[in-house]
Amino acid sequence: MNSELHTHGHHPSTAYLRPRRAISEPPRARRAASSLLLLALPLLALLPLAGCSSHPAPEGADRHSGSAAATATEPRSLVLISLDGFRWDQLDFPEATNLRALAESGVRADGLIPVFPTKTFPNHYSIVTGLYAQNHGIVSNNMRDPELGEFRLSDRDAVTDPRWWGGEPVWVTAARAGLTTAAMFWPGTEAEIRGVQPTHWSPFDSDVPFSDRVQQVLDWLALDPDRRPRFITLYFEQPDGTNHRHGPESAQAHATIADVDARIGELLRGLDELGARQRTDLVIVSDHGMAEIHSERVVVLEDLAEFEEGELFESGALVQIFPRPGREDLLFDRLEGAHPNLRVYRREELPPSFHMAGSKRIAPIVAVPDVGWEAVRRSQKERMPDGPLGGHHGPDPRDPRMHGLFVASGPSFVAGARPGRFENVHIYELLCRILEIPPAPNDGDPGALSSILAPRASNPRARSAALERSRP
Predict the structure, then answer these.
(1) Active-site residue, 73 included
(2) Is 395:318 a contact under the CB 8 Å cutoff?
(3) Which of 214, 250, 344, 405 has the maximal Cβ count within 10 Å?
(4) Which domains, ranges and CATH numbers included, belong to the chain?
(5) pLDDT (tens digit, 9 = 90+) per residue, 80-106?
(6) Catalytic position from the list 120, 180, 181, 233
């Protein structure tokens, strides 16, 4: 992510606004209340409605028949979790014990194929809209629109401007169907897309500890059924940062995987304390993978062309060039074929598999380095140390090193399902199917992930009835 979300969202007038806390007792208080309740049972037996307590169930209560019956009748909640930059094979790190246990008992993909470019904002937004980047408008982390100007992650005015965000993200789809939603961060949630934001949300703040983010989600899930969000997002900006700085196979990456895995463990223990496992579906994804880079695999762009002929708008794992008027052909001819590890395209001639040729927000000339290669200015190269440079993402989504994570667990999923590799644009349809809401138009295949859904979520008649109920 190249510190993408690490820096955006800080603004003098928008200090971190704590999401509205769920109105429920914390776990320790619930356990204390349960103990007092046991002492008071003789008195409660005299009350005709003693069996109708509305207090949250104590830890482990979902193993008892009464709680299980209540849970089965409550509406399910769906939690979409992003572990930014988590490469698919990092799931096999010894430290990923909680994630791997979920994967083994639930659903595990062999890899989640991102959209082009394999950057953070385009892919997070593709996951929740089911659209390729050219169709939802977020074509890179930094981009330029002929009418709107420039979009950069550090520009809060741009990030919150709904004109940049096309398509319909799932929290908007859910709201249109009358569902309550919540976001513990996610790209797009800070803008009023189609006039809608999640019911509960806050501006991104990297200073909020991961454990606090988990607790906020648990607080939402502890709300009474009529107030409880049916769809929740939870975002962690790791292991992306560590993968960038040290590489995806470094000792530091292993340590960071251990940390994010521990946060997943906290979430699972919290669900158990709430007795909420059987009413909560978890979908855990990442936006892209990561490839190691080295100082010997760097293209210096000024060695190929003089950039007086155009503006170098973006460089690194993706190069965007805006030629000066009348200079596009000259600049393209100088760059095309100039280096064996750099593919240079006119915007309208980008490969069909990139689904990008129709966007006016991508530069007229786009250069895509091979995965594991960087294309930079000479001044950037001069600042680089010799040897390993950490990790990057952004190039061709077809390379397995760019593939991300997909793990799912919960009552809506088939235990042990293995869907292979699939594109992340199919996830929006999956989320809508679980929530039983009609999807907006999208690029995904409604049947692509049917095999991983348990009978209730995959039953066409049940889905048809749900769609009828959601229509005005």
Answers:
(1) no
(2) yes
(3) 405
(4) 71-290+399-470 (3.40.720.10), 293-389 (3.30.1360.180)
(5) 999 999 999 999 999 999 999 999 999
(6) 120
